[in-house]
Amino acid sequence: MSNTSNTPIFTRRKFLAASSLATAGLVLSRTAPFAIAQPGQSPNSQINVALVGLGSQGRILLESMLNIPGLKFRAVCDIWKYALQYGRNKLKKAGHDVNVYTDIEDMLAKEKDLDVAIIATPDFWHAPHTVACHKAGLHVYCEKMMSNTIEGARSMVKASEAAGKLLQIGHQRRSNPRYLHVYNNLIRNAKLQGKFVAANGQWNRAVTDDLGFPKAYTIDAATLKKYGYRDMHQFRNWRWFRDLSGGPISDLGSHQIDIFAWFLGANPSTVFASGGIDYYKNHEWYDNVMVVYEYPLAHGTVRAFYQVQTATSSGGGYFENFMGDEGSISISENPKLTAAYREDRAPEWDQWVKKNYLRKTAAPPEPETKSVIDVRETKALAAYEIPVVLNKPIHQPHLENFFAAVQGKGKLTCDGRHAFESEVPIYRVNDSVAAKQVIQFKPEDYIA
């Protein structure tokens, strides 16, 4: 078992402390390499944007970006004319007259005034598209996972640093004010949890049908083959295919496994996972996966359990839960699933309530009969609300952070190198499922 606490953990903590403060407007670094406006670019200048990929995720990002001032959309790119038509019409209504492209190389050759590219293509195209945009001199915001392979992700970090351009990866919880409040104030400052002893998280979804498409917009076979797809079904449902993505554990789990490492301040030393293609018969990736990570903290090993289910929404939806010997924190992008709980043995939290870190909620009613309480059961936890609400689309703060960094007004909350460090343990989950073995990580595994 390897211990990563000497280098990656220290680096992560320093980075996140600085980035979170910068996001809060408390610190404006002028020395970090990725926080400085490029030569000749005014901090207040308009940012010229190209959007690459107009599927469901590209559309979500577009909706958020239309709320951000100072952006001028110049081009959109997608191999599907149906998606291009949507993007062009949507942007025209918002006052942006864009050029449309079906090939990114063509776009980069003709568009000479671009500052940034937003990449929301399927995972297996993230690395080639990001590298091409960096070589063209653009800053890049790329959706997670960075790639469908570790080597692809590593190539993105190297391309970003070789070009001296920003690379933000779309782990958007890193810029969510509720997550930042929990990390900075409740965990690091108040240390409400005491010693972390365990964590768990999940994302459970009900059964869904595969995506279809309007027959009039069928892409011809030669074009599909050129861009790596067998047919339209695979093109529309690429998340389920092995050569194109990492399946549900990377599509859904990567968001939350990223939070394990962030809040615990460590990278895992081992992973063991089990999963299978047990429900859907026309998919290549596991439709359910259960994972156990071991995190080596200073006071001992902390284990984190994660599950992703795609055939049931039972179990409470999607959340992350961090358990300590004095308190626990449940957090989610859904504010209804977010709360803190104090153990009966812990010191009172009144000072943190006075600072508005928390709000105490009413105690649950006493049970009608003592017979329902086993003598071995400990006293119920005292519950507290976490009074930070995001009043924007969930991706908007992360995009705002990226554009602020482009203008030299802040520092990225999830740059490529730190995203790589976070995603390495996610790539290895499917390996552990296939081998039915525990996989150990070495410190060098986390170096891009």
Topology readout:
Layout: H1 8-23, E1 47-52, H2 56-65, E2 71-77, H3 81-93, E3 99-101, H4 104-110, E4 116-119, H5 123-135, E5 139-142, H6 150-163, E6 167-169, H7 177-189, E7 196-204, H8 221-226, H9 232-236, H10 248-251, H11 253-264, E8 270-276, E9 288-297, E10 300-309, E11 318-324, E12 327-331, E13 339-342, H12 350-354, E14 359-360, E15 382-385, H13 396-406, H14 416-435, E16 439-440
Parallel strand pairs: 1-2, 1-4, 2-3, 4-5, 5-6, 7-10
Antiparallel strand pairs: 7-11, 8-9, 8-16, 9-10, 11-12, 12-13, 13-15, 14-15
GO molecular function, one term: oxidoreductase activity
Pfam families: GFO_IDH_MocA, GFO_IDH_MocA_C
Domain Gfo/Idh/MocA-like oxidoreductase N-terminal: 47-171
Pick out the low-confidence regions. Answer: 1-43
Strand order of the largest sheet: 14-15-13-12-11-7-10-9-8-16
Tally of structural domains: 2
**Average pLDDT across residues?**
90
What is the structural class? Answer: alpha/beta
What is the CATH fold-level name of the largest domain? Answer: Dihydrodipicolinate Reductase, domain 2
Query: CATH superfamily assignment of the largest domain?
Result: Dihydrodipicolinate Reductase, domain 2
State the CATH class of the largest domain.
Answer: Alpha Beta
Radius of gyration: 23 Å
Please provide the ordered H/E string of secondary-structure elements. HEHEHEHEHEHEHEHHHHEEEEEEHEEHHE
**Roughly what fraction of the amino acids lie in strands?**
15-25%
First-to-last CA distance: 20 Å
Described by strand count, sense and barrel closure, the largest sheet is: 10 strands, mixed
Number of helices: 14
* Helix content range: 25-40%
What is the annotated CATH architecture of the largest domain? 2-Layer Sandwich
Give the beta-strand count. Answer: 16
- Overall geometry comes to globular
Keywords: Oxidoreductase, Signal
Organism: Ereboglobus luteus
Domain Gfo/Idh/MocA-like oxidoreductase N-terminal: 47-171
GO molecular function, one term: oxidoreductase activity
